[in-house]
């Protein structure tokens, strides 16, 4: 009898030993998590920077999802951002055209979920259609400070989308040639001050343009792609807009502590892009019709300007301004800029208003590029150039009673379109022509 009992105990011990890996310390079997890829969909065609995103769930009350992993290449896994709501950015620049499998899995600290997999086609054309030689890149990091009142909200994103739509509808910019890089790729509730709601690509979009996060690697990839494509055409047109927090000392009212420092703008996770870095990045751009706008505090160095239109010391120059380019900044190198959490950065808002309303037609530089209107029909041709919109914005900052307190920002311009020199840059840069 004892031998039978011992045998039963031994069998039970073996069973418990074999299956103990499936039972938690409290004796409750772990339920594996579930995961779903929401974007892109199976058989979608993707290009540029792909914002893979989805959801995950864990049905256990006592176990939460620890990590989401995504694979775009067999055997290689990367960690996504987020858990129950997650995203993973896949840079397809330079990949061969063809079909790729995207796999995703969730890990709850004990077990992986089953894989969710889709197949997509990567399509990165080397050239574009012959009548579409226009490119635009919008970059803005507005809400990177955690629990910080200096967040800029979602207004910059909405302004970027308005500009992109206007360029598509009025300037014949192809949707495939427009990229918007915003924050970490998520839209947040509470106008940017709350938690992430959904990845940008899951929102309703009027136009099929590319979205991704404002990471430095994405900025570099997007601009390098614009350069490689636009250099194929003699009549290419390039528009680059960067907005966000600038680097400087707000308490230093005289120079912002920028006398011997370069202008720089914060990207996501407090990565920065200095003016000289952007200058080096654009050094291979051959387009003779380029507009660059940097809307941030202490941004004048991007236009090689300090204050009152005075040039930056030659050893500190960005080399962004070149023949064929108009470079504008929302503030001098020594002054702060301003932004609305709902309307976006103030200078860009005014610049875009002057451009689209026609109110800027005929505006001239005036004294120290402060901007002035003209009543002479000679200066009005019914088309607003990028420079006229700049002088309109500066004039409004100085004369509008509701805006005069913001005029201390002193927007700067370095106009070398179509060529360098006071008498060789009188022709305005008209976008879309």
Compose a concise summary of this entry.
It contains 6 helices and 22 strands. It is α/β, with parallel strands linked by helices and 433 residues long. The strands form 6 sheets. A 7-stranded mixed beta sheet has the order 14-11-10-15-18-19-22, with helices on both faces.
List the helices and strands and how they pair.
Blueprint: H1 2-19, E1 34-39, E2 45-46, E3 49-57, E4 67-73, E5 76-79, E6 81-82, E7 85-91, E8 98-107, E9 116-122, E10 134-141, H2 155-171, E11 178-182, E12 186-188, E13 196-199, E14 210-212, H3 216-230, E15 237-244, E16 264-266, E17 272-274, H4 275-281, E18 290-295, E19 325-329, E20 339-340, E21 344-345, H5 346-357, H6 386-399, E22 412-415
Parallel strand pairs: 2-9, 10-11, 10-15, 11-14, 15-18, 18-19
Antiparallel strand pairs: 1-3, 3-7, 4-5, 4-8, 6-7, 8-9, 12-13, 16-17, 19-22, 20-21
Helix pairs in contact: 5-6
